[in-house]
TrEMBL record:
Coiled-coil parts of chain: none
Keywords: Hydrolase, Metal-binding
Protein name from the UniProt record: Fumarylacetoacetate hydrolase
Source organism superkingdom: Bacteria
PANTHER family per record: ACYLPYRUVASE, ACYLPYRUVASE FAHD1, MITOCHONDRIAL
InterPro entries found in the cross-reference section: Fumarylacetoacetase-like_C, Fumarylacetoacetase_C_sf
Keyword Ribosomal protein: no
Length: 207
């Protein structure tokens, strides 16, 4: 089982190149959606079962924040967040595209069981370390995504303020902060490795 997760917030289209690769407009304010807490699963040498009869499943690697205390306006992200992880926002792409065309909720495409694997958490780094360190996703041994907070459209502070002021943030909430360019399909037998700099944070195999 994954460590306890309360609310699971996600930020969509938070990297310009990712929005463009999917043909989406770059948002003017954070685009927030939710996954059920049951979507969270360990990304730590686990085999993860994904839907096999719902069209293409895409991986989206992300930096994930864990909230340590209740949000209070004016609180810095460093005061609010105690740890971070890396995660995969698995998406049923065919269903997602159809829902977007119809203007419907993304939940069927984003909220299925095992849709939010999380590596073990580590202490939240300093701003300087965050900006100096890339996170990467390797699929079957090949790097497919590379991200850095410096390339986000909306900063971590903007994200926590936006979510905290509108929806609330409290202990054990987590935030998937958006995916960089390079998302793509995954099938049974694929392996994933998620790195923070040179540090291997977690691995999984798709069942």
């Amino acid at each position: 089982m994954c460590a306890a997760v309360n609310n699971l917030y996600c930020v969509g289209r938070n990297y310009k190149l990712h929005a463009e690769e999917l043909g989406n407009k770059v948002p003017t304010e954070p685009l927030i959606f939710l996954k059920p807490s049951h979507a969270a699963v360990r990304l730590d040498k686990e085999t993860i079962q994904l839907p096999k009869d719902s069209g293409q499943v895409h991986y989206e690697g992300e930096l994930v924040l864990r909230i340590a205390r209740d949000y209070v306006p004016g609180m810095s992200v460093e005061e609010l967040v105690d740890s971070m992880a890396l995660g995969l926002d698995f998406t049923l792409r065919d269903i997602h595209n159809d829902l977007q065309k119809k203007g419907l909720s993304w939940t069927p495409a984003k909220g299925f069981k095992n849709a939010a694997p999380l590596t073990p958490f580590i202490a939240f780094p300093s701003k300087e370390e965050l900006e100096a360190t890339d996170f990467t996703v390797r699929k079957n041994g090949e790097e497919v995504q590379r991200g850095n907070v410096k390339n986000m459209i909306f900063s971590l502070q903007t994200i926590v303020d936006f979510i905290g002021s509108r929806y609330g943030l409290g202990k054990d909430d987590v935030i998937f902060t958006g995916t960089p360019a390079g998302v793509g399909p995954t099938v049974s037998g694929d392996s994933f490795e998620l790195y923070w700099g040179d540090r291997l944070m977690g691995t999984c195999l798709i069942g």
